[in-house]
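By convention, the token line describes the chain's fold. To illustrate:
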Amino acid sequence: MHGIARELGCDWRTAKKRYMLQKDIEDGKTLPLKEHSSILDPYKNIIDSKLEIPGITASAIYHFLLDTTDYSGKYGLVKNYVKNHKEKVPKKASIRVPKTPGKLAQVDWKEDLTLISKYGELLTFNIFLVTLPFSEKKYCRLTLDRKQDTVITSLIYAFMFFGGIPKEIWFDNMLTIVDASKMNQHDRINDKIKQFAKDMAFNPIPCRPRRPQSKGTVEAFAKLTNRLLAYNHEFESIEDLEKIIDIFNTNINNEVSQAHNRVINEVFEYEKEYLLPLPNNKIFSSYLSNRQTRKVAKDSMISFNGNKYSVPVKYIGFDLNVIEKDNSLYIYDNTILIRCHQISNNPLNYNTEDVKDILLSDLLKNSSQEKVDSFISNNLSQYDNFL
């Protein structure tokens, strides 16, 4: 081999390598292809995980890589990889929701719906969704936030609506339910929800992230809420919207479900016998709060039970907490008491300081204090009509 190396003018190891390569060719062996690294290599695991999502496109994956990683390659690389590997990804079977009466409920949110009032004001809100997959019985509730206390309160109202409690409740991986630090662990329900579930005697189950198939019934319910869009310009206040959603809730439970081709309420009459009994009122009362949230409208008023109550102008657009107690309405900015109004049947209820604030910001802007005081004493009823 050293002699051959001298004739070829190369190292003997190189000569040996060429000799063995030639021998393999003559023997008909398949030669290994030289592997070339690709700029896409570090991202293939991410792409493979996204290919598990039904209907995902190469374009969607490419833009996801641009937004969340430091990938700097061309779209064509991603497109070709997806084309060659999409069909090779094993299809994961969807988790079928067990159709056992009283077995479980599914919970989710329809987030950030926006409707326009008769006065052109935008109201953004959420709908808390619960459904019982066996009967398809549904419950929905309007909320202005998605806080943990709101989740608990909404669940209690759902239990009272159903007249019982399912043995399991499946939740999306919302941070009000699971601990972010335990997101990849089996036991990731936070302590407060665990205690609530224990008191109510149900088993809380977090769904797998990005697996909407595992709670398809409630996802379908979320689509139904799009019917609320027909109520644009048809309501005056949040109380009107709450009434609309109550009517909507009644209507959808009197419809025939495509799942079992029967009226939902008829099937629920059978299922409700399998629900767990409600706990005593003392347990319910320990979780329920009379604190509610209201958004301050452009007229510097909040709505409560169909009537309006004033707050300082600086809170326009804010979400404030309201508490009804002893026929009085207490209005808070977090823990700071802003106003206390006597609850009345008057459509408009003003605090004198708020009236001055409102007039100086709008109708009597740049006017003297004397003129404002005179207007209040002589023309407040006209101002009500102006509003």
About this structure: Residues 331 and 361 are 21 Å apart (CA to CA). Residues 210-216, 383-387 have pLDDT under 50 and may be disordered. The chain has four domains: 1-31, 41-88, 104-287, 291-386. Residues 104-287 form a domain with the Nucleotidyltransferase; domain 5 fold (CATH 3.30.420.10).
